[in-house]
Every structure is written in structure tokens, then in C-alpha cells.
Amino acid sequence: MRNVQLDHVVELPVLGVRVTFRTNRTAILDAIDESYGMWRELAGWPSLIGTDRVTVTIIEHEDPAFTANAAQADSEFRFRMPDRERVITHSRGSVGIVDTRRGDAIAYVTPRLVADRERLRRGIIEGMTLTLATVHDRLPIHGAMIARDGVALVLSAPSGVGKSTLAYQASRDGWTLLGDDAMYVQTTPAVRYWGIPRHVLLSADAPSIFAEVSDRSATAQASGKSKIAIDRTHDWGKFGPPCVEDVAVVLLTRGVGAAAIDPVPPAALQAALLKELAQVSDLYGDLPGRALPSLCARGGWRLSLTSRPGDAAPLLDQLAATLRRTR
User: Fold this and answer.
1) Per-residue pLDDT tens for 123-169?
2) Which of 319, 38, 16 is nearest to 188 (CA)?
């Protein structure tokens, strides 16, 4: 499989990083376009596109051993990191390797996985692409990014606290969702904060809170968790490129009383974000030390949530009003 003919090639500036995708199947190219085709719009803002280039190659292959047992479903994706420069992704019959030093990634995937476009996108295309792009000065911060009337907020929290639920509530209240799962910090040539307005992933019990998603079914994600995916790619058109030059960080926690918001000093904010990054620190080297000081310089806020996202939404509006007056 060293000399596969790769007839389908496209370059897309994901997060402002030039990514060349290569594949031997039209169906894989279509899946790539579904994940990242929106980044063609960035051509209208050439100053946001950097000079770094990376390559992602995805090859459909026939594995006789796997084909003989084709009735078996592909297993969950598993991820391994043998050193700080390589990440390995694999499931039954498919494998991908990302080499951050070389700036390229390659995956061999089964026809069965190609037919399951959602799993192909989540487990192979998006994971490999974001690993390559983020080490090129795009530090990921686990949080949802929302914007409204010149103010951008990052809602940061560990999984299960309610970050996506609150972000979706905010989008219903007039905020633009610039990214559900992560915000990406760029430090050069200027400080910028990027989102990916692709979808918001809600917990399986979201229909009990939001009636309009009652007809949606939860599907398994690459992480193994079941989520209801709500498409938000249209938010790009509402906002322009999902890139801002200033954000405020809001740390989310689960409270026991009414929803409340309090300031967090810069040192405490940076410590909280570093804790979230601890498990991927090898991959990003000294990038957190360069990216976090600017993000945390003015401190942030801690928002205590109730079980009802609507309780916290007015506090986001109040914070935004305060930021408009003071900046």
C-alpha cells in the first residue's frame, strides 16, 4: 500500500493552517468536505491563513482478514501516543498514524468504515486533522466559544458539567456558537482565538430541556459517548470567520443553590486551564506557556450552574454588558 494512486486532493485552511487532504475514494473526499469544507470561506480573509502546511492522507483498503469477518462491526476507536510526536488511532481493520514532526498523517480504513461516514469523520478525519493543526500554534482549550455584539466568551468545563447545554441555550437566546467542544489559541503573528462552528453535541437527556430536539436520536461518538448532534455550520455565515482577537473565559461548575457568577484572578484561571491541559502537555510542549498568559491576563469568571441552563443564561448577558462597558 505504499504506492496507492491518490486521485482526489483538496487543500482547506482549517483554523488558518493549510491542510492538504489526499485520498483514493470519492466517498472519503465527500466526508472530508462535510467536516471541513466550510473553511473554503476563509479565502475571503487571506490575512488569517498562515504559511504552515500539513498533509492528511486517507486510503480505503481491502484487508482480507477483516473482509472475511465483515459481519463484525468496527470496534470503538482507541488512541495511543508512543512519544510526543506521534499519535496512533485504530479500530478493527482501520489504523491511522499522525506524525507531528513531519507534519503529516496517514490512515488505512476499511470499506465498512467509509460507508459509516459519521464514524469516519469523528474517528479518523477530524481527529488526525486537528492533531496536526493544533500543534502548529493552535492550542486547544476545552470549552464552547460563543459571541454576541462584539463580545466573545469561552465556557470551559470538564465533560459532564453542562458546557454544551449552556452554549446551546445561549444560541437560542441570540448568541452565535463559534465552537462547541474547543477554542484554539494562536499566538503568532498575532493573538487570535478560533472556533469550529460545526455542531453542538448535547447529552441524551437534552429533549427533557429543549423540546425542539425531542425528535433527535443520540448516536455514538468517537469517544464512545452517545450524544445528540445539532448542526451549527450556518453560524459561520452569521458571524464571518470563526476567529476573534479577544475573549473572556468563564469556568463552569455545578452549584447547589442559585446560579451565580464570580471573578477569578489571572493566576487561578491559568492554573485551572493548565490542569485541563495536563494530559496532553507532551503533545504541545511549550505552547501552553506561550498561549495562556495572554488569555488569562485579565482573569476570568466562575459560573455556578443549576440543572436548568436558562437560569445561567441571563448571567452571560450581564457579563457581556459589563465587558462592553469596560473594554
Assistant:
1) 999 999 999 999 999 999 999 999 999 999 999 998 888 899 999 99
2) 16
Answer yes or no: do 72 and 146 share one domain.
Answer: no
Phi-psi region of 137 (alpha: psi -120 to 50; beta: other; left: phi over 0): left
The type of residue at 189 is P
Q: Judge if 151 and 210 occupy the same domain.
A: yes
Whether 225 and 291 share a structural domain: yes
Beta partners for residue 261, in sequence order? 303
Asked if residue 100 and residue 210 are part of one domain, the reply reads no
Q: Are residues 56 and 116 in the same domain?
A: yes
Domain assignment present for 162: yes
1 occurs within a structural domain: no
Question: Range of 28's domain?
Answer: 8-134
Per-residue confidence at 45, pLDDT binned at 50, 70, 90? very high
On whether both 313 and 168 belong to a single domain, the answer is yes
Q: Are residues 130 and 160 in the same domain?
A: no
pLDDT exceeds cutoff 60 at 209: yes
Confidence at 277, pLDDT banded by 50, 70, 90: confident
Extract the C-alpha cell encoding 140: 486547544
Residues facing residue 145 across a β-bridge:
154, 179
- Using 50, 70 and 90 to split pLDDT, how confident is the model at 81? very high
Given a cut of 60, whether residue 41 has pLDDT beyond it is: yes
> Where does the pLDDT of residue 224 fall: very low under 50, low under 70, confident under 90, or very high at 90 and above?
low
